[in-house]
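Hi both,

Apologies for the delay on this - the queue was longer than expected. I finally got the zinc ion-bound model through. Below you'll find the protein sequence and the ligand SMILES exactly as submitted, and right after that the structure tokens for the full complex including the ligand.
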Amino acid sequence: MQMKTFFLATNDVELTSIRFNKQRRLTGEYIVNEGLPRLLDLYDRIGVRSTFFVTGDIALAFPVIIRMIVDRGHELGSHSYCHDDRFALDQLNLQEQTNQLSKSRKLLEDISGNPVVSFRAPALRVNRFTPIALHDSGYIIDSSISPQRADMFFSFGAIKKLNRLWAARYPGYVQKNDLSKRGDYPVFEIPISSLIIPYIGTAMRIIPYSLQLLRSLLAWESKLTGNPINFLIHPNECMVEKDNDSRARRSNNPFVYIIAEQLRGYMKTKNLGESAIRLYEQHLLYFQSNGFEFITCKDYFEYWKKTKEN
Ligand SMILES: [Zn+2]
């Protein structure tokens, strides 16, 4: 019998404005009216069931987002409570992380009426307390690790992301103090597909041809090993924010400002809106025509457990 291969479409829903580089409520309105409906329509067209990791603050401000996701048959997961850098999990101790994670889970469960078991950390920033915080707050599945991704020097929290270099590429239970290593602690990690470049929406929009190459490599690896493909995208990428807000500056150093912020800001807004949908559709169709099945994180975990028992 041929080994089954899976594609996990995973979506992060948060108040982060890509264009203005900050958290804002107005971005949530664009998500409700433009970004999310487009993404959900694309999934319906192709027959994709996916997982949405939603922050507590956007769920509280726009509960309709939860209904839109759940009513279309997707899994609802948590993206912590707030995406602001001040609440990046790698900055918080165990108690503070547990607070953020529990608060988010309770809110998402109250609004949706469904259990929430899957999690992704904002900006993929985690530390040695995160597995315990996840377990203590009732999560079973995590998807915050991007193995062998080498672009971390361009992002915030770079040194702390070094663990990515030797992270396991296959899904499984983690170690009590490290989500990137396999062990027997009862938190199940589903890594985000990557190989030097991460297989995510941002890269798909900035370097579309490289992502086509990466896609072929990952599909080949997946057929060989059975590792699922896990692609990360945001509804924020499927919309264009047209208002005239100001762009937030993170640094007052003019050199850092020009190189790291202006250039990065310019690149990050490439191919937003309908272009992102068109590019993404090609990726989904590629995997569909290669026999991959679309699955949620929770269903993938159930499948994984069953194959381990046999
Ligand atoms: Zn995020």
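Main takeaway for now: Residues 148 and 223 are 19 Å apart (CA to CA).

I'll put the files on the shared drive as well.

H.
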